[in-house]
Amino acid sequence: MEYKCCALLTTALILVMLVNCNALQCARGSTCCAEGDAVPRVSIECPKCHVLKAKRCCVEGAITDCFQINQFEKMFSNHDSLEVESHANMAFWDYQSFITASAYFQPYGFGTTYINRKFTGTKEVAAFLAHVATKTSCVYNVTTKEPSASSLCHYKKTNSNSYYCDEQYKNTYPCTSGIAYYSRGALPIYWNYNYGEAGKELDVDLLNHPEYIEQNATLAFQVAIWRWMMPIKERQPSAHEVIIDYWKPNKNATLGKRVSGFGSTMNILYGDLVCGQGDNESMNNIIAHYLYYLDLMGVNQEEIGPNEVLSCAKQVVFNPFSSSSP
Hints:
Helices cover 32% and strands 7% of the residues. The chain has 12 helices and 9 strands.
């Protein structure tokens, strides 16, 4: 089942970054994140991490410490234009909606994690928004090296041929009559079980009212971050874990050329729709957005690693499209 993990979040807000920083293992406040060595101030811009947790992982601060509205507006310079209005509600997406949504997940490490005393939050925000940009763009088949200025345009993509109702989950996430569980959100989800699980975590009845995502930009971002933070299947990493370089590949992953980094975020989210296909336009478009956003956020591109970390062209996919849904 897509985006299903071995231990679901509960209303008690289970933390992602706890036992050895593995996803979804301990409740907030658990002693499994005992204080360790003091961490020196890492930078002037992001100075708030003072405690190393679980030996190599620290979660501290807020995304606003390192990501300001002027950076958002440069990334999405066309998000409130007339062109966007012709596709969706004008100015549906905005900086404050993203910040409000991210606040829920910041204690879990989204955009606020240090690994071995190195801050990973700026890189993670750039990576997440690169995916959001390409999935919400009004422009397709981008062949230039410049990212599309028409990102943050769509918030849904209907498909009249399918209601995306999987009857295998009729007991846990029964489909509501007449409701279509098509693509919605900043990082779109499909299928009744994804709406059900995301709704359970966010305490919103998305199974009966998926249209709520279309009506509230904060919720649309929250659902996207939920998708980013959640492993698709057991014993697989989340996009969050690979971008912060927490996940360490086992022998099979290494043989499949899967490594922690931006390339693996594409592999996790899209499988063989993008990855394992050699050099292709879809992959290069997502990478172009990521590199552009890193530059806007003042991150040296040399820090992202070699091409095999950035790309997924040669990676064996985690989940072939034939066996998992987008």
